[in-house]
Amino acid sequence: MNAVEVVDVSKVYVLGHSQWSRVRRIFSPMTHRRTGESSDEVCALRDVSFSVAEGEAFGIIGANGSGKSTLLQIIAGILRPSTGTVTLNGRCSTLLELGSGFAPEFTGRQNVHLNATILGLSQDEIESKFEAIHDFSGIGDFIDQPIRTYSTGMILRLAFAVAAHSEPRILIVDEALAVGDVAFRQRCMRRIHELRANGVTILFVSHDTTDVKALCERCLWLERGVVRGLGEADEVVAHYLATTLDRTQIPKPAGENVTGDAHPHAIAEPVPGTHRFGNGAAEVAGVSRTEASLRLKIRGKRQVSAPIAGFLVRNQKGENIFGTNSARENHPLPALAAGDERIVDFRLTMPRLAPGTYSISVAVSDGSLGEFEVCDYIEDALTFEIPQGSRPVSGYMELPCSAVNISFHR
Questions:
Q1: Backbone angles phi, psi at 123, to 5 degrees
Q2: Angle, CA 46 vertex, CA 42 and CA 47 arms, to 5°
Q3: Phi and psi torsions of 197, nearest 5°
Q4: Please, which residues bridge with residue 275 across strands?
Q5: Are 95 and 176 in contact (CB under 8 A)?
Q6: Which secondary-structure segment (H or E) carries 215?
Q7: In 3D, which of 225, 260, 261, 370 has the Cα closest to residue 306?
Q8: What pTM, to 2 d.p., does this model score?
Q9: pLDDT of 224-253, one tens digit each?
Q10: Which 8-state DSSP code applies to residue 42?
Q11: Which whole number is the average pLDDT over 154-173?
Q12: Domain definitions of the chain by residue range
């Protein structure tokens, strides 16, 4: 059974020049034309359809103004679609605009009760969860102060705490987490992962595509209100990034509804890797790995004045573990002309990683650490497995620790 069903949803904002013209448009028939085709209206969404299964984490990506927030507000019932239908199966909690639904003159405590009641919790349920909400928010004695005295970070903390502890079956999270500090943002992401593990359906909007890939199985890409991509998160995100960078992707992803135009300087000789894009001025012509090193062979296709070779290791959730490049290691590479080849060896002291599957993405760019153009980027060029050892790893990796010293003081 699907938790969310969105069918042919469109949203049109009318730019009438008078009150009468706006009223007239409300009663004018829309069946004889497509929405958004008149000069006095703006189409924020056009014919958007998708479904989200119960317990699935579903991402929505796109540039600013693509319609992401409008879509979430329609799903949450804050806005009505111009056409189409939305069906939700289960209690829905939302974290959309920062502090939306909070009364500024009410205290934090009063707002917790107000918002939790709106979300469908009884007074007994609110009382039983209040301490957990308060502790998670970390705002201390401010809980009894008016919301108008809170900082934006404090409002976010309290809003997320209420939404995450309201026992939702569907949780909708917009870009609000971007304003939080790093520690709280990590706590929020851990809580979202916990909810997902407990079967909660997640709709997640973020400009941080690493979070989207780490959390979501599938992803929707909106561009100017139109569905540009819908399919597995890795494939849709990779194509979105390639298009955002005005690069091509080679080969094209096999996911559903993903389209794109070839770049005039597209790389002609793909090497192993799920997704590949770049401006084609240089290419990664080979990759190999040993226990202690990673070797990249790069080749010039056109003039590259300041080449940078690098790599990034990710775990099976798509989370970045570590990476570096020749510029960061203060090892400048000589310029590349067409046909020139260079071998770049990264000698590594590998930490002891947690068991699982890992991937290595590689790239060659032109420029500096602060400003560069991607010539060739190959996602998941190599993969490797870390088997379960006799000694468990706490967290992502284990760093070398030669000794533990204990001193006593009186």
A1: -65, -35
A2: 155
A3: -65, -25
A4: 379
A5: yes
A6: helix 209-215
A7: 370
A8: 0.62
A9: 999 999 999 988 988 888 777 654 433 333
A10: E
A11: 86
A12: 274-410
